[in-house]
Structures are given as structure tokens and as C-alpha cells.
């Protein structure tokens, strides 16, 4: 069983997406709340997860898609990243740009980690309001096929 100490000690450069997914799967809501209270660890974990989107992107599935996707992880503070899909590549930037995203996905720390680690169904999260989608819902529903999402 994983805990926050496992996550704090994690060398993201050496852990596979599947190993990370297993760690997240073992975390309770309470443990993720503890993670959120440690702002440096929270920032590090979210940053590492979002950066991996570039490595896990499947350009052959995205085709000619051009879109700006904003990810908001609610909490204190709200953490925002944007992923731009263009020319068969994904570019990740931290923060909110002035550009209008095609879709914005918002979740709390726990639901965000479950989503990006393959430990939750995005459809179920959306239907239960744990994942909020603002903008192109069709694009949001297609996102999982554009990324190699790990399974625990």
C-alpha cells in the first residue's frame, strides 16, 4: 500500500507511468489531502504528471487536431497548466495564458490524480460532477485516445 511518504520520495525520472498509477491507486482521499497541504510536494507531483503528457501523447491518434486544453486543479492555490496540441505534438505550459482554450477540465487533487493515472473513468467523473468540463465536450471525451494513459 502506498502512502504520501512514497510519493514524496519518488524519483519521477525513474518511475514508469504504470508504477505511478499503482501508487496513486493505493492513496486514499485523506492521503491526497495531506499531499495537498504540502504545497511543494503538491506542485512537484502535478508538474511531473502534466509534463509526462508530452511523452504519453499519441500523435497518430490526434491527426490534424489543433487545440488548447486547460487543466485546472482546484485547491489552494489553483494549479493551472495548458496543453497545446498542434502539428502532431503536445506542448505543456504552466499557468493560464490569455488565449481561449477549446476545453477546460477542472478537478480537485484527488480526482485529477485518479484521472491522469488511469484509476478513474472520465465519463463517470463527469457524470458525478467530480470532473468539470467547460467548452468542447466532444474534445474532452476524445482526450483519452490521444494519450497512453497508464493502468494500475
Summarize the structure.
This is SCP2 sterol-binding domain-containing protein. This protein is 46% helix and 20% strand.
Summed up, the helix count is 8
CATH architecture, by name, is 2-Layer Sandwich
Structural class: alpha+beta
The radius of gyration computed from the alpha-carbon positions, rounded to a whole number of angstroms, is: 15 Å
Helical content, roughly? 40-55%
Count of the domains: 1
Protein name: SCP2 sterol-binding domain-containing protein
Organism: Streptomyces boetiae
InterPro entries: SCP2_sterol-bd_dom, SCP2_sterol-bd_dom_sf
Domain SCP2: 52-147
How would you describe this structure to a colleague?
- It comes from Streptomyces boetiae.
- This is SCP2 sterol-binding domain-containing protein.
- InterPro entries: SCP2_sterol-bd_dom, SCP2_sterol-bd_dom_sf.
- Residues 52-147 form the SCP2 domain.
- By secondary structure, the chain is an alpha+beta fold.
- The protein has a single domain, classed as Nonspecific Lipid-transfer Protein, Chain A.
- It has helices at 4-9, 17-25, 29-37, 39-56, 59-62, 109-116, 122-127, 137-146, and strands spanning 67-73, 79-86, 89-94, 103-107, 132-135.
- The protein has a 5-stranded mixed β-sheet.
- Strand 2 and strand 3 form a beta hairpin.
- The longest helix has 18 residues, at 39-56.
- The radius of gyration is 15 Å and the shape is globular.
- The two termini are 13 Å apart.
